[in-house]
Amino acid sequence: MTNAPIRALRRRLLLAFGLLASVCAVAIVYYAAQARQHVGADYTAMVADVVRSQEDPARLLTALTRLENEHPDHRIHQEELGELLLRIPRRIENIRIQVLRSDLDRRDYAPLLEELSHVETRLEALLGQFVQVQRDGLDEREIERLRELGLEIEGGLAWSYSELNHLVQQASADQRQTMGWLTLAVVSLLVMVVLAVGAVMLMMLRLQRQRDAMRHQSHTDVLTGLFNRRRLQEVAEQEFARRQRHDAPLSLMLLDLDHFKRVNDAYGHPVGDEVLTSFAETLQRQVRRLDTVARMGGEEFAVLLPNTDGRAARQLAERILGATRAMPLPEEAGDHRLTVSIGVSEARQGDSFEHLYTRADRRLYGAKEAGRDRVVSSEALPKVANSGAPLDDDELDKLQQRNAR
Ligand SMILES: Nc1nc2c(ncn2[C@@H]2O[C@H](COP(=O)(O)OP(=O)(O)OP(=O)(O)O)[C@@H](O)[C@H]2O)c(=O)[nH]1
Predict the structure, then answer these.
(1) Which atom of ligand 1 is nearest to the CA of 258?
(2) What mean pLDDT is reported for the chain?
(3) Does the interface predicted TM-score (ipTM) exceed 0.90?
């Protein structure tokens, strides 16, 4: 079992994690920018209006002073004053509406609106006075009265606008601070979410690894690292299904080390283990990547050979015979001659894996019976000593039964 699926899964998880983190980062930056823009835009219009209105009190006073010095025949400054007396109430109304619609605290702006209302009544009085002046002309008393009203209005307006300015600046600063905290909270939250998602992904990855490791163990022979009987069965079922679709040949080879008990008895079990492991390596060196090598138990092995007919399987088996004889053994067992018996069978029409396995097993038995260190396959069955004719499967069955008795 390779690590490739785990690596692929890890790559996919990392990619998903990176994408998620990027989306979160873009969302945070976009949100923060939007929020700041919104706060700024809310008060900018009001501040602009207040700044414009703050010029009105000074203009009013200037217009009144010029009025004093104006020649009765020239009505230029009277017109300027008249215009101001119409414009200032409009501006006050505009600012009042904006204040009422804003998020400012009512308790903060109530005195300010009260003062503006007072200024409005004073403006009405000034307007009345002004109309009278226009009608009756200016005298010392009228001028004095106009100046008093003008100063009162100027004071009220200046105080109200400066208070309002202060309130707006304060509110703006408060909101910016709130937005800062809010942004920090959102960022922390998102970071936590991202970390949590990352942790879950890591856990999933670990679980996947553990599952793969367990699956690997359940399919693997501990001593040799080869597949075990169960895995061979699974692969064989897949190969049989594939064979039905593509009509490709499929062969099975069963191998059993000869007189292996003697190795154990002569050199000890650990040396026997080493020999089994070396034989497994020898087998793997002989086969192709698409072949499946398994240890069936004890000193018995199997090789499933997709896209391989009986003849090619036999040739491979002959090669394995030679490689086994030439296989270097552990030092302690240097004198021993290791050989193997092999039964080979090719899948026939309508076969199941059980059929294929039983036939190969029978031929393996035949190889043992015929003297070991040989291959028995459908293409070259062992000869019966007295007749010299090759044995077929039925004859091998009979031989097997006779020996069992
Ligand atoms: N060292 C070692 N020996 C094992 C292992 N599994 C099975 N064996 C031994 O393999 C031997 C098999 O002996 P037998 O079934 O008599 O077969 P054999 O001696 O190879 O004789 P033939 O198969 O008839 O040629 C026994 O001694 C088992 O103890 C293993 O994992 N390690």
Answers:
(1) 25
(2) 85
(3) yes
